[in-house]
């Protein structure tokens, strides 16, 4: 079983995370037909685009660098690389929030 971003909702990786206005246009134009994917794209987009100064850094062995970048996320190979990137982007005045999720199949 693949552990990629979303096998069931390919529009998520196709369009990445976007602001509500852009997703609404894509849905109204018939570009995005999967409304669940549209909701997810908006949810992620609102976190990224409405919170200036926030960088999301993804560490995952199930998501490629290209997929992360297409979503608008930074990518790091290891947690330590992610921390190093955060400090490089924001200096010593950065704060971080880490979510850990391990899937065992």
Concise summary:
The chain is mainly alpha-helical. It has five helices and two strands.
Structural summary, described in words:
There is one protein chain. With 105 residues, the chain is mainly α. Helices cover 45% and strands 6% of the residues. It has five helices and two strands. The chain has helices spanning 11-15, 20-28, 35-49, 65-70, 79-90, and strands at 57-59, 74-76. The protein has a two-stranded parallel sheet. The longest helix is centred in the middle third of the chain and has 15 residues, at 35-49.
Keywords:
105 residues, mainly alpha, two-stranded parallel sheet, 2 strands, 45% helix, 6% strand
| Sheet/helix structural class | mainly alpha
Overall pLDDT = 81
- Cα separation of the termini: 9 Å
Strand arrangement in the largest pleated sheet: 1-2
Main beta sheet strand tally, sense and closure:
2 strands, parallel
How many domain modules? 1
Global Rg: 15 Å
Shape verdict:
globular
Q: H/E order of the elements?
A: HHHEHEH
pLDDT under 50 segments (min length 5)? none
What percentage of the residues does DSSP assign to strands (E)?
Answer: 5-15%
**Helical amount among residues, as a percent range?**
40-55%
Beta-strand segment tally: 2
What's the helix count? 5
Structural topology:
Blueprint lengths: L10 H5 L4 H9 L6 H15 L7 E3 L5 H6 L3 E3 L2 H12 L15
Parallel strand pairs: 1-2
């Amino acid at each position: 079983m693949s552990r990629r971003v979303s096998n069931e909702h390919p529009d998520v990786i196709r369009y990445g995370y976007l602001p509500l206005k852009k997703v609404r246009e894509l849905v109204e134009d018939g570009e995005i037909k999967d409304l669940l994917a549209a909701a997810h794209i908006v949810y992620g987009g609102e976190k990224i685009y409405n919170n200036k100064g926030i960088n999301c850094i993804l560490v995952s062995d199930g998501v490629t660098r290209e997929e992360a970048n297409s979503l608008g996320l930074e990518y790091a190979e290891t947690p330590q690389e992610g921390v190093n990137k955060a400090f490089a982007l924001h200096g010593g005045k950065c704060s971080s929030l880490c979510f850990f999720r391990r899937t065992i199949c």
